[in-house]
Amino acid sequence: MSWVFAIVLTLLLAMGCFFILVGSYSLVKLSEFFKRLHGPTKASTLGVGCVLLASVGYHVLADTDPQPRELLITAFLFITAPISAHLMAKAALSLHMAERPPQPGVEPEADTDEGDPAAS
User: Fold this and answer.
1) The model scores a pTM over 0.85
2) CA-CA distance, 90 to 83, in Å (whole number)?
3) 13: closest CA among 53, 60, 63, 40?
4) What is the pLDDT of residue 13?
5) What is the SS3 assignment for 105?
6) How large is the C-alpha radius of gyration of the chain?
7) Pick from 17, 24, 18: which is nearest to 39 by CA?
8) For the residues 84-112, what does the mean pLDDT come to?
9) Listed GO molecular functions (predicted)?
10) Which parts of 62-104 fold into alpha helices (H)?
11) Are 18 and 47 in contact (CB under 8 A)?
């Protein structure tokens, strides 16, 4: 394996780790349910996809046995993550999650009406 492919695979792994970290951070730090739903489903899917793509690339370039389970994991992840996020969002809309009071210990977000002339 040449150094160019090693750099490409390293970049894929680094991007994957970055996206997984962003998805995990958004799940922990964001306050509202819909914001918390968006981060892990988008960023973590990209992160795991980059890591699995790097793994497939390594096995192809190292002339080892092909690993079809990595492709199956990628396909399963890209199919199920958006569908599950969509179903959770629909359930949250039907339960009126946006109208519920915040959890104890979480400060509510302040609504600023500075740009609204009707608010004065």
Assistant:
1) no
2) 11
3) 53
4) 95
5) coil
6) 20
7) 24
8) 74
9) sodium:proton antiporter activity
10) 68-94
11) yes
For 66, phi then psi, to 5°, come to: -65, 145
For residues 38 and 27, give the distance between their C-alpha atoms in angstroms, rounded to a whole number. 9
39 and 23 in contact (C-beta within 8 Å)? yes
**What is the total residue count of the chain?**
120
Structural tokens at position 36: 């918390």
Residues 20/72, Cβ–Cβ less than 8 Å: no
Higher per-residue pLDDT: 119 or 46: 46
CA distance 60 to 85: 32
106: which 2 tokens?
Answer: 């979480």
Q: What is the DSSP letter of 98?
A: G
